[in-house]
Amino acid sequence: MIDAVASLVPVNLAAHAPALLVVLPMMIAPIAALMPNGRIAWLLSILTTGASLVMACVLLSQVRSIEGGAVISYAMGGWTPDAGIEFRIDALNAMVLLLVSVIGFLAAIFSWPTVAAEIREAKRAMFYAAYLVCFTGLTGVASTGDAFNLFVFLEISSIATYVLVALGASRDRRALPAAGNYLLMGTIGASFFVVGVGFLYAATGTLNMAELAVRLEAVRDSKAVFAGYAFIFVGLGIKAAMFPLHQWLPNAYAYSPSFVTMFLAATATKVAIYALVRFLFTVFGLEFSFEGSTLIWVLMPMGIAAMIACSFQAVFQTDVRRTLAYSSVAQVGYMLLGVAIGTTAGVSAGMFHLGNHALIKGALFMALAGVVLTYQGTTLNDLKGLGRTSPWTMTAFAIGALSLIGIPLTAGFQSKFALVNALFEYGWWWAVAVVMFSSLLAVVYMGRILEAVFFRTPANPNKRHKEAPLLILVPLWVLAIANIWVGVQGGFVAGLADDAAAALFIGGGS
Amino acid sequence: MSGEFAIIAALVLPLLICAGIWLAGRVPDLREGVTLVGAAALFFVAIVSAMKVSGGESPAISFGEAVPGLEFAFKAEPLGALFALVASGLWIVNSFYSIGYMRGNRERNQTRFYMCFAIALFGAMGVALSANLFTLFVFYEILTLSTYPLVAHKGDANAQRGARIYLMTLLGTSIGFLLVAVIWTGALAGSLDFVPGGLLQQAEGLTPVVASALLILFAFGVGKAALMPFHFWLPNAMVAPTPVSALLHAVAVVKAGVFTILKVAIYIFGEEILNATASREFILAVACFTIVVASLVAMTKDNLKARLAYSTVAQLAYVTCGAMLADPAGFMGGSLQIAAHAVGKITLFMCAGAIYVATGKQNISEMRGLGKRMPLIFIAFFIASLSIIGIPPLAGDWPKYELMQGAADADLDYVPYVLIVSSLLNIAYLLPIPILALMPPPGSGEPAAFKRPGGAPMLTVAAPCFTAILCFLMFFTVGPIADFLEPATGERLPSAYMTSGGQP
To answer: Quick check: A13 and A48 in contact, CB under 8 A?
Structure first.
């Protein structure tokens, strides 16, 4: 299907797909901001993200056109690397880009009802502009091959995100401190990152990531490289909500507009993890990252701590959005654990879980957005009995929840299976115990919610039969069915993850 | 009908039935018609596949891979065919019974009830016919999830509490232990298929320690086998309506558990490796402990369903015990117990339900003399009790016989004593119920009047009588059943008894 979509695009347009994917939303954003009303801006964002989705399909089919995965190098503006900025797409980028643009497209479609309910009329056009800028930033991070350019896109997406989170203030004033907190942490993270890039530039004299990887070989023992490495690791760790640098995340998810929560949960941390993996494997190289710096003993304990501590925190939340936010941090732990193994199977499992988790959290937060829209609250008490009053929304929510737990025939099961398999192959059987324990905690915290939804009588008897609007239900069910589809026929996503991991090991493995 | 088609039909039929029940939900008679016709068709399909298997075929089919290496594959083999036969056959009887019970009790949400039942049978069929551990695990979980609404059916606080314990225990053990064991097996052997003689034979680097750990993970991971200390979900599941307890918690769900243990013992470990695995004796001891302790606990219970639940815990451990004896006679005993105990225990549960519908009584102490009003029910109860105890000429006799043979073959002297003590305990906690009901001691007063005018609905009486007769008939058909199972369990060693002078 990807190839069919890709073949519809004219060849001379397809040649510029890497640029179009990122630049199009950036150009449309100011136009959207000028629109007289929000509805037109909304339609514009759908069209733009849709176009980006098509471009992502083009890129994927180009990457997959040759055995072993092609690497597309695109010189921005015709300026060849070192002087200019290179966009470099391999199987890993293509997978992340597809993920971000699919979620971005679905999010754009579903956004209107919740935006209409939560954002004031005058701000809606600006809201969509900020969304498109954020989308630009995320896709930019996932396609650029230039370290400094990556920082720029990271900041573009972050600054847009601060705005988006703060706009939740019209629903809940606590969005403002949440956005402030996020701003502070995010800026620290970005500063760390840019300082690290500075160190690397000082040591090698280049900012192009492929070139960096080559030149770093020679200066591997320099203290500057080590310092740069540490700064980049911490900086991206904050962005990826790596435990214990995740404190900004729960509030930012809980108080931002529902649409923003859904989009961020499914994409923002994923892209940061992508950047982290890209630096660890491609720029610094497997040998440096894993043998030179004992990274494995940093990444693995943090992943495990996240899986346990944040799952426990999730159990004790009363607001369902916070439960899911803490669960997100825990799931990041799974991905880090997969990466920490440092084998192809491990990284592939981590990437597989990354993709699946986007589908899972996307579905869950979309369903919650529907609940916010129709019933206003998201505490456990508000959700009581909704299984009866809005069965379609809640069935999709339940599918997402089962997938999060990792019940067979769902996407979550497949990636956890792959992760545990990789752990066994590597001989970390004790880590298997941790994964399973964390899954059991997921049974507890999601089970609590599902029980309230399906087996409790509503606390408020005024709740009548009220589903989320069709604009929410359709994308929601697309994601829910995707969860089942990956669970039953996961070959496609698993293949993407395998290719992505293989690309890392060809490109960066020394 | 080809064997492959029979497998597909066995999987698709329950789903069609489920859809049919949903469509016919507004017309109860039509809805129940769908269930009955569908159950009959399913039983027919199970018979066909069993006949193919007994003819030496092993029909197999694959529905493709979920991800590379994890295949949805199905294959009919003797053990699974027997389980499918038992589950689908008793479903027909139980459906008749359900109609009487659910209507007699005026239960709500009956459409949901019958739909979940059909999905549970879908899970049971999948477990029975699965060709690898992955498929088995998937259907094992479907079975867990589909029965949760059935356990919580009443919807009051008590039912919810029981259902939560049910779900948490089964999901917890399966995700925490069984899944680990499955993946570990895959990592060791490079495949998850059930292989005659044992999949782990082809595993390189299988040390006795690893094998021991695996076996422990499997034995406790299959929570449905109710091995102590993971047995408590079963008494808690008794909050469910009685037809659920009867078919699912005496037949489909718990038997899926012990069936999995048997499959793992025969097709994953294989006799040889199992014998060399140190933790086998530990699990065997746990099973024996469960047999005795659960029987002792059963004696203290006055609630009839709770007593039957603990009795089930003890009887299930027989199967685990047979699997852990790791010789053909042990495997045979375990397999026969699946069928024999199913027929006996479903009778007991259906009797308990009939008593409840008619009188509202659940406590054994209140049933004294009730046999005067419900003679057929208590006679059926009496026959089934004798079968569970293991007295000839009733079905329950054979598994115990084979298990004792198996224990003798394996030179495990304490196991026969455990079995004998268990039988004595069975007598102590089961037989007083029908005897005191049918022949109350003088001066114990008139039994309570029927709560429901007209007593138990006719269907709720006919069904247990029918299965009680089955207990009797099965005693005489055990020869063909054993021949049918022999390819899976392996040849038993009659000569061993002959030479030691133990057997004529």
So the answer is: no
Tokens of A266: 């499914």
Q: Tell me whether residues B68 and A491 touch, CB distance under 8 A.
A: yes
The pLDDT tens digits of the residues spanning B416-473 come to 888 889 989 989 888 888 888 888 877 777 777 777 777 777 888 888 888 888 888 8
Q: Where are the alpha helices (DSSP H) in B24-68?
A: 28-54
Whether ipTM > 0.90 holds is no
Cβ of B186 within 8 Å of Cβ of A407? The answer is: no
**Pairwise pLDDT comparison (A170 vs A270), residue with the higher score:** A270
Residues within 8 A of B (CB atoms), A 376-405 only? 402, 405
Whether a cis peptide bond, with omega within 30° of 0, leads into B229 is: yes
B contact set with A (CB within 8 A): 64-68, 70, 72, 137-138, 141-142, 145, 152, 155, 160, 163-164, 167-168, 171-172, 175-177, 179-180, 183-184, 186-187
Q: Is A207 helix (H, G, I), strand (E, B) or coil?
A: coil
Give the mutation candidate from B71, B138, B143, B183 for the A interface (greatest A CB count, under 10 A). B183
Distance from CA of B162 to the nearest CA of A (A): 13
Structural domain spans, chain B:
3-495
What is residue A144's DSSP assignment? B
Q: Which residues pair with B61 in a beta bridge?
A: B74
- Please tell me what DSSP assigns to residue B203: -
Beta strands in A4-80 (DSSP E): 72-75
Q: Which of these, A329, A455, A297, lies nearest to A387 by C-alpha position?
A: A455
Cβ pair A421:B187 closer than 8 A: yes
Residue B158 C-alpha, separation from nearest chain A C-alpha, in angstroms: 12
| SS3 letters across B145-177 | HHHHHHHCCCCCHHHHHHHHHHHHHHHHHHHHH
Amino acid, single-letter form, for residue A30: P
- Other beta carbons less than 10 A from residue B446's beta carbon: 9
On the question of pLDDT at B22 being above 80, the answer is: yes
- B502 Ramachandran zone, left/alpha/beta (phi>0; psi -120 to 50): alpha
Q: What are phi and psi of B60, to 5 degrees?
A: -140, 150
User: What does the DSSP assignment read for B391-415?
Assistant: -TTSTTHHHHHHHHHHHHHTT-THH
Mutate to test the interface with A, among B67, B72, B177, B206 (most CBs of A within 10 A): B67
Given a cut of 70, whether residue A292 has pLDDT beyond it is: no
Predicted model pTM: 0.83
- List all residues 6 or more positions away from B96 whose beta carbon is below 8 Å from its beta carbon: B36, B459, B462, B463
> Whole-angstrom Cα distance, residue A40 to residue A47?
11
Instruction: Write out the two tokens for A469.
Output: 């609007």
